[in-house]
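The data are quoted verbatim here:
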Amino acid sequence: MKLTNELQVAALLGRNNMSDRDIVECYKLLEIIDFDEFIFIIEQSKIWPSVYSNIHQYFRPSIPERVYEYLKKKYQNNVKKCSDQFRLLSIIEHKLENNGVSYGCFKGSYLALKLYGDLAKRYSNDIDIIVCEKDLERVDELLRELGFECDVFSSFSNEMLKMYFKSQKDLIYKNDKVVLELHIRLSVEKSRLSEHCSKWFIEENSPSNISVLEFIYLCWHSSRSLNFRLKWLVDIVEYIEVLEKSTSNVFDSIIKKSKELNVFGHISSCLYLSSMIFGHFIPDEIKRHVESKPALLKVINDSVEALIYRRDITSPRFMIKIAFCRIALSHGIYRKASMLVRLLFYPNVSDIIRMKEVSYRLPSILYIARPLLLLKRIVANK
C-alpha cells in the first residue's frame, strides 16, 4: 500500500531532530496535504509534542492558524500530563525502594529522556512498571497507600486472578491524575523475550541506559499490534540513531539477538516498515526475509492501512487482523498453534466480568464459553 502525503509529513515532523533534507521535503509536502487528514493521523498516532515543536521552530507560516492552535493546546496539555506522571513516578520509585521491592520502569518518561532529552516531547498515556509476580500483593498495598485503585485486583477472586493472568500480563491502576500499568511480565505467554527484557528492565534500565535488548522489545511491542501508532515507529528510528552512536555493527547485534529470542519475524517486519516510512538503512538479510514471506508482507500492508485510515482498535475486524498478525509473527508451528489456542479459548477481562457469577463457582467453564462469547461480539458488530 502506498504511503500518503499526510502520513509522510507526520512522520517527518514526528522526529526529534529534523535534518536539512527533512525540512526541505516537509516544506514541499505541507503545500499539498489535506490538513484534516494530517490532524487525524497525528491524533491517532499520539505524536503531537514533537510535531508541535518542529512546526513552531521551522514551519509556523506554512500552517493554518486552527492547526497551529490545536497542536499548541495539545502540547501544553502534554507538558502538564508529563509533569504529573514524572512527579508520581518519583514518589512510586521511592516507595518501592524503601520497601525493598525490585522493579523496573520502562517506556514513558524513561524513553522520553533517553531518546528526546525532554519529557514533554513524547506523549505517554500511562506509567509502565514491571515487578516480580511474588511481590504483586505487596506492591498493590503500596500503590493503594499512594491513592491508586485497581478494580480487577480488588474485586476478582484468587481463581479469577489466575485465569486473568493466563490472558493478561498487567493490571491497570488509576488515581485522579495518572494511569499506571503494573506488569508481571512483558508478554502474555512465557517467552525468552519476556524473560530477558524483564530482567534487564528491573536490573539495568535507567533514563540514560540504552540497549539492543530494549530496542528489540520496542520493535516487538510495535509489530505485534500492527504498528498502528506512528509514535512507536518514531521511537524505533530515534533509538536506531542512538544505538549507532554507541554500538558497532548495530544491525548485526540486533539480528543475532532477535534470533536468539525467537522474534526475528517481529523485528524484520517492524524495521522493514520503518525503513519504508523514514528511509533509514536496513540489511539485505531483513529485506530478503520479509519479501520471501507473504504473511509478513500482509502484516506490513495491514500496518500501513492501520496508520492511514480511521479504525476502532476494539472492533472485531481489527482484532481479527491483530490475531492474524500475532500468529504470522510467531516463531515456529508450535508457537503459532499455541497463539491460536490462546486467542480462541483463553477468556479476556471482559469475558470474566460478563460471566462473573460463573467465574466464581466454576472458572473452567469460561474456556468453553470463550469461543461463543467471541462469536457473539463479531456478529453483534457486523
Summary: The two ends are 25 Å apart (CA to CA). Residues 65-98 form the longest helix (34 residues).
